[in-house]
Every structure is written in C-alpha cells, then in structure tokens.
Inverse folding.
C-alpha cells in the first residue's frame, strides 16, 4: 500500500468517489440547465431551488404517503417537473421576445420565493433521509470500500445523462427539439407546436434537477439551502463546458467533480475554489467554453 | 336543374395588411389562387412578395385583413395551425436545419393530411438527396439545400405549396430540374403559389401572374393573354 | 444607427439640463433633511447602499451587462478598508482609498475575463467569480471568517474631521455619496457615455466604426467596481465593521433588486430603490425569512409588470428623459 505524506490509496479513491458523486450532480444539473437554455434562451436561476424541491418531495413522499425511495425517483421528478411546466406556462411565457436577462431575473426571484418559503417552514437545519435498504452496505474492493448507494448514484446518473443525450441527438423527438431550438419560427410553420414544446422542455429540465435532488437526499441532508450552495459551481461548470452542448455539459460535470475531489486530497484549501479558477483559465483561452458552439 | 357547387378558391386574400415591427409592408393585398393552378407573384426587390407568403403562413408580426384557405378564414391562426390545414412553405432562405441530418430534415415536417408523396417518389424526383441522407444539413450545396427544402414539404400531405424564389442563385441545370418538378407536381394536382424574380423561368410553369409594387398588387394577367403590349408593361414594372 | 456626435455648445440650458437640475435639487434637499426626519445612522447606511446601487446600475443600465456578483466589490473594499483603518491605523480617507483601490483592481481582473461574453453568459460568470471571492474571504486570515473585522475606528478624516461626531460623519458620508452620484452622471453624459450607448445599441456597428469596444466596456466595469468599492469602504467606516454578509451572494441579489425596483437605466432609480429596499428590510426584520420571500415576490412582480421601476414610471408619466 502506497503511503505518501499522509495520502493513502484509500483516501485517494475515497475522494475520487466523492468527486464522482458530486460530478454526477453537476452533470445532471448542468445538463438540465443546458437543455433549458437551448430551447428558452434563459438561464434558469431557479434550478438550485428546484433541485432542493426534489429532495424535499422525496422526503414528503416517504413521511406523509409512505412512498419509498424507488417511488420517489419517479414521482418527485414528475411532480416538480409539472410544477416547472406550470411556472413556464404562467410566468416565463410572458417574457418571450424580451431581453433574455428578464428571464434570468424572473427565475432568480422565483428561487428566492421558493427558498424563503422552505426556509420558513423547515428552518435551516437538515432533515434526514435514509438510504434505501436495497442499496445499503458496501463492497470491499481491496483498495477501497465502495458504498453501494454511491455506486448506484454514479451509475444511475450516468445512465440518465446518456439516455438524455441519446434522446436528443438520435431520436425523432430529439430532432423536433433541435429544430425548434435552431429555428422556432420555421419549425412552427411546419406544424410543430413550439410553445408546447418549450413548456415541456422546461418541465423536463426541471425534472432532471428534481431527480438529482432525490439522488442527493440520502447523501446530503435535505436542507432548504442545498440548492443555493450548489448553483454557483453548476454555473461555472456550464461556462467551462460551453452552453449549447449537451455532451459537453455531461462530460464537464463529471470531470470537474473528479478534479474537485482530487484537489481535496492534494491541496484541500483550494478545493472550494478550484472550479472557479479553472473557469477563469478557460475564459482566457476559450471564452466559448471547451465544447461551446456559441460565444 | 342542379347547378354544380363551384369549389372555393384554394387561397383567397383580401385587404391583407402586414407589419414587421413598426414597418407597414403590405398595404391591402388582394388576389386568389384556384385549385390546381400555379400562380406566380412577380415584382422588384422590396415589393412585398416574400412578406405576402409569410403573412399567409402566419409568421409576420402583425396582420389584418382576410386570408381564406379553402373557404376557411385563417387570419387569426398561429402558423402551426395554418400548416395543419394543409399549407406548406419553402422559404427564400431555405431554412435547412444545420443541427439535423438530411434524413432528419426530410422527415421533420409532420404529416398534416393523407396524400403526401412516398419517400421512393421523392427520391425519384430528387436522386441526389438519397445519397446524402446521413450528411449534416449544413453541409449541402445551394442546389441540394433547395431540393431538400422542396422535398420535405412534399411528404406532409399539404396540397398547397408556397415556394419563395426556388431558383435563386442556382445553376441552370438545377433550375431546369426544379421547373420539371413543379410541372410534375402540377400534374399531380398540387396548387402552387410561386414567388419569382426570374420571369423566364416563371413562364415555363405558371398559369397566371400578379405583379406586386409597394406592398400591393398592381396588375394580374394570365399566360394566354400575353402579347407585345403586356411584355412591354412587364419589362417596365419589373425593371428587367 | 446613431453615431456619437459632438454637441455644439448651447447658449440657454436645454430641457434635459433643467430637468436634471430640478431633480438634483430635490435630491440635495432630501439628503440635507433626511437626518432630521429619520435615524441618521440608518440614512448613512442607506446612502452607502444607494451608491452601491448607482455603481451597479452603471453596468446594467448603460452598458447592458448584468453583474450578479457585485457584492464582491462592495465586500472586498469593505474588508480592506476595515483592515487598513484598524490594523494599519490609516486615516479613514486613506483607508477608504485603499478599499477602492482593491475593488478597482479586482474589477479590472474580473472584467478582463468576463467582458468578452455576452449578456446571460456574463451574468453567470460574475456569479461564479463572486462565489470565489466569497470563499477567499472565508479562508483569508485577516478577515477573521465568521466574526468579521469588528471595532473599526472612525478616526479623523484628512486628519481634521472627527468622524466619531455624528454630524461630521454624516457630512462626510453625504459628500461621498454625492461625489459618486455625480461621477456616474458625468460618465453617462459624456462622450464616453455616448460611446457606451452606441455599443449597447449596436455593438457590431460600433466595432466597424473603429471603436475599441472591449476597452470601453472594461473601463465602465472598472468604474462600476471602483464606485461599488467606495460604497463598501465607506460603509465599513460607518457601521464600524466588515463581515461576510457584505461579500455573500444575497448582497449581490439585493443590489439587483434595488436597481430593478427603482428603475434600471435611470440615474435616480437606484437611489430610490435602495432606500425602499433598505427600509423594507428594517421594517420586516422581525419576520425573519419572510423578507426573502417578499423580496423574491417583488422581483417577480417587477419583471412581469413593472419593468421600468419606480423612477422609470415617474419619468414616463412626466415625459422626462433625464431622470
């Protein structure tokens, strides 16, 4: 076993694992942001708050309705996604045609309202959510212990990301989405109901955020502030990857999670800021982002 | 004695005004297109021909007046609903989606009615497209893009087609191909509204013409009526 | 497209100058009367935030760039000024200058990296940089983390003005605010301001006319950062401390709210907005987290139905253009 100055293989892989976990959330969240940005041309500042709502939804489904984690994985994204679609229909749709900065401001205001309400009713401290029994325990891989739940989070997130990418790039529905994103006027002139597609796309992006929230609930506590804590890093991830690239957001999300984890091993003081430093460097050499198409 | 009901014109435009933002472009356009006809809108740049097609489709800013498709008023409808009535547009800029492959571009417009052309038929009309199906939409040449733009609206079952300057900037051999396609479509019973600057091309396919000036129709005439005097007038109005 | 032109000297004051003079006199009267009507300490804090909002508004209202991390300039200057006054024992005027220098340098660095990106992208980048500055402030030893820097001495400004006397402190703060306000006015109504306007309306055109657009945007960004730093440093002297609140994200959100509510792109809007928001916070402080909810609701309402803001609506009703 390698023993550097107080860094063990165990620690290294342990942090790598945490890095991949965080990377999973970064990937899911930046994917949702990218999908929403592509169609609606707005930055969904409420994304963090909706992630938080997903986690709370899972908590309530369990404690009020006795629906376990597996139900929550399906029901919470549907419920929060529907809420998102409603927000788009009633509020965001009124801003179509205006400067996209107003969309940013509106979603920011919504984030404040949602977070404030949850903070009022639940306080700042966290609510516990248990790891589902089917995923508890860990495997001993020799060089590290791999908790089953964490392996599940990484694998499931990667699958969802891949499935989303596939749906957008390779299917008929995805072709509709890409066409409506590229030229909504002509797409509509062919008979596609573009306004409805916009609403559903926003709902889908929100559902992805809520799904990330459900996945996060057993790991982080269910807290009103959990969205606000993560949103700045997710923004940085999106800027680094480049808006407009689905694959870019996914890869960048996972990669930066890993980088953050490794930084925590070798240079812990910088782990909070390493993603932002990388963003600064990327902005210097490639302002459009690593995979970006639009500056 | 029973009188046969005269079928309503495929398209009847009356008093159509249209604006792009603050600019008032169309000042009371009146014309009609009867079933099975090929009608061409002629006129100089800026006369309002493209705006007219867009106003019929419902993709300009503001419009007032009457646009009746097969007897049904469409002035208040959004463009997707107009499309679903059986109207299809092939825009001047062709609007091929670069983020879609050629095949995806071709298959994108949904079927709005029965009677669309089958894929084999489309590939017979446009053999080049069959070879380029996997390419990205943005990688096609001008001629290929034009053919794709026409091909994709033939699948949908729309029987009223609006083609905006389909021959612009294309080589003569492709122009002839497009002319042949339009003639073929006419034989199959499509109704076509054409916008063209190239009068000589339009002559080969059109039944009737309207000349637009400053956002309204100046004169209209049929192919059969053309004589030396009309040709003189045309040359003047079109500035050719 | 409008090309910036040199304005020929006019004999009689134009309507715009008259309007501005009237509004400015009102502002002066309000600033003079305020400490007799409301708690002076509260007014001074409000003036600092008003300056902060004016600095923010310079970017969004006149350059079209929405900075969602402006707290980094307010807070960093606040910390540097507090440290300079308390630990280095500097004259408060010098300490404030030190704070401004810090925020200006930060502005140039952040601006240089962010300016090339447009609108939405730019906003996200400022969020990220502000978060970075926040973390740096949490970890830097001289900021004392959660405790902040307490007991900042008020001292004697320029060696003369004893700032521990409320009346003198008020005059000092009011003078700084008016200076900052007039700086914004001057920047906006100048050839520099005209070029910024041209850039906002049609950037490609401005570039094709030969203007070094990025330099102008960076200059505006640096000026905005400097004035925000001025507000932060002054606030450190007034409240005699510097804390993480000044550099945390909610502060960035609040200045946006102040400007939106008051009227983006108007000169007096940020001032009015700041006063309203600060008053609202004071009044609602007893309700804890409801303040956040109400602020969010005001945001949403403004974006949907009140985009011109208070001063914007007044200007629209009166048909005045120079508010």
């Amino acid at each position: 076993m390698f023993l550097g100055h107080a860094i063990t293989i165990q620690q290294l892989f342990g942090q790598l694992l945490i890095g991949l976990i965080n990377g999973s959330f970064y990937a899911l969240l930046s994917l949702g942001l990218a999908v929403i940005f592509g169609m609606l041309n707005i930055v969904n500042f409420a994304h963090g708050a909706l992630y938080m709502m997903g986690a709370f939804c899972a908590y309530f489904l369990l404690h009020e309705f006795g629906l376990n984690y597996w139900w929550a994985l399906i029901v919470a994204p549907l419920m929060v996604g529907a809420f998102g679609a409603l927000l788009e229909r009633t509020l965001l749709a009124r801003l179509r045609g205006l400067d996209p900065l107003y969309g940013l401001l509106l979603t920011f205001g919504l984030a404040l309202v949602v977070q404030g309400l949850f903070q009022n009713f639940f306080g700042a401290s966290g609510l516990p959510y248990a790891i589902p029994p089917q995923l508890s325990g860990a495997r001993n891989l020799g060089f590290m212990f791999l908790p089953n739940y964490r392996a599940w989070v990484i694998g499931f997130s990667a699958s969802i990301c891949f499935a989303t990418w596939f749906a957008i790039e390779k299917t008929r529905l995805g072709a509709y989405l890409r066409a409506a994103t590229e030229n909504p006027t002509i797409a509509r002139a062919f008979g596609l109901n573009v306004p409805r597609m916009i609403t559903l796309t926003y709902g889908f992006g929100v559902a992805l955020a809520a799904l990330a929230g459900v996945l996060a609930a057993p790991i982080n506590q269910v807290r009103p502030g959990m969205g606000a804590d993560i949103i700045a890093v997710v923004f940085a991830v999106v800027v680094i990857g480049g808006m407009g690239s689905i694959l870019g957001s996914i890869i960048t999300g996972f990669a930066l999670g890993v980088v953050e984890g490794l930084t925590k091993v070798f240079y812990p003081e910088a782990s909070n800021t390493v993603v932002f430093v990388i963003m600064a460097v990327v902005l210097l050499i490639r302002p459009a982002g690593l995979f970006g198409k639009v500056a | 004695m029973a009188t046969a009901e005269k079928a309503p014109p495929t398209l009847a435009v009356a008093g159509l005004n249209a604006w792009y933002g603050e600019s008032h472009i169309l000042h009371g356009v009146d014309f009609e297109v009867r079933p099975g006809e090929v009608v061409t809108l002629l006129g100089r740049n800026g006369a309002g021909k493209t705006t007219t097609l867009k106003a019929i489709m419902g993709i300009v800013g503001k419009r007032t007046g009457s646009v009746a498709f097969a007897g049904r008023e469409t002035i208040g409808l959004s463009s997707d609903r107009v499309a679903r009535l059986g109207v299809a547009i092939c825009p001047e800029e062709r609007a091929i989606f670069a983020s879609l492959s050629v095949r995806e571009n071709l298959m994108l417009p949904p079927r709005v009615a029965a009677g669309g052309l089958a894929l084999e038929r489309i590939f017979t009309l446009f053999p080049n497209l069959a070879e380029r199906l996997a390419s990205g939409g943005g990688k096609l040449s001008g001629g290929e893009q034009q053919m794709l733009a026409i091909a994709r609206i033939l699948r949908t079952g729309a029987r009223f087609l609006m083609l905006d300057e389909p021959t612009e900037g294309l080589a003569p051999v492709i122009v002839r191909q497009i002319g042949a396609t339009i003639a073929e479509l006419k034989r199959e019973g499509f109704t076509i509204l054409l916008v063209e600057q190239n009068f000589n091309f339009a002559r080969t396919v059109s039944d009737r013409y309207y000349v637009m000036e400053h956002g309204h129709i100046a004169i209209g005439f049929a192919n059969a009526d053309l004589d030396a005097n009309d040709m003189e007038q045309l040359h003047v109005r079109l500035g050719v | 497209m409008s090309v910036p032109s040199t304005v020929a000297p006019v004999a009689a004051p134009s309507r715009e100058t008259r309007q501005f003079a009237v509004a400015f006199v009102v502002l002066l009267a309000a600033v003079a009367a305020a400490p007799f009507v409301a708690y002076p300490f509260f007014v001074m804090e409000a003036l600092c935030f008003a300056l902060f909002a004016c600095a923010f508004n310079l970017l969004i209202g006149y350059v079209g760039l929405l900075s969602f991390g402006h707290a980094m300039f307010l807070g960093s200057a606040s910390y540097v000024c507090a440290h300079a006054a308390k630990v280095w024992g500097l004259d408060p005027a010098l300490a404030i200058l030190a704070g401004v220098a810090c925020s200006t340098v930060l502005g140039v660095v952040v601006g240089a990296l962010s300016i090339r990106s447009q609108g939405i992208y730019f906003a996200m980048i400022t969020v990220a940089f502000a978060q970075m500055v926040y973390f740096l402030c949490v970890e830097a030893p001289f900021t004392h983390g959660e405790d902040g820097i307490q007991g900042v001495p008020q001292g004697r400004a320029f060696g003369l003005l004893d700032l521990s006397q409320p009346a003198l402190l008020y005059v000092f703060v009011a003078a700084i605010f008016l200076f900052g306000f007039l700086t914004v006015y001057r920047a906006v109504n100048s050839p520099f301001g005209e070029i910024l306007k041209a850039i906002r309306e049609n950037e490609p055109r401005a570039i094709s006319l030969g203007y070094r657009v990025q330099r102008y945007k960076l200059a505006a960004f640096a000026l905005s950062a400097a004035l925000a730093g001025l507000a932060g440093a002054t606030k450190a002297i007034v409240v005699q401390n510097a804390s993480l609140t000044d550099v945390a994200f909610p502060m960035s959100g609040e200045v946006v709210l102040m400007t939106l509510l008051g009227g983006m792109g108007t000169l007096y809007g940020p001032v009015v907005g700041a006063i309203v928001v600060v008053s609202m916070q004071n009044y609602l402080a007893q309700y804890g987290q409801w303040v956040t909810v109400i602020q969010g609701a005001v945001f949403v309402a403004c974006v949907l139905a009140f985009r011109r803001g208070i001063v914007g609506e007044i200007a629209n009703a009166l048909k005045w253009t120079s508010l």
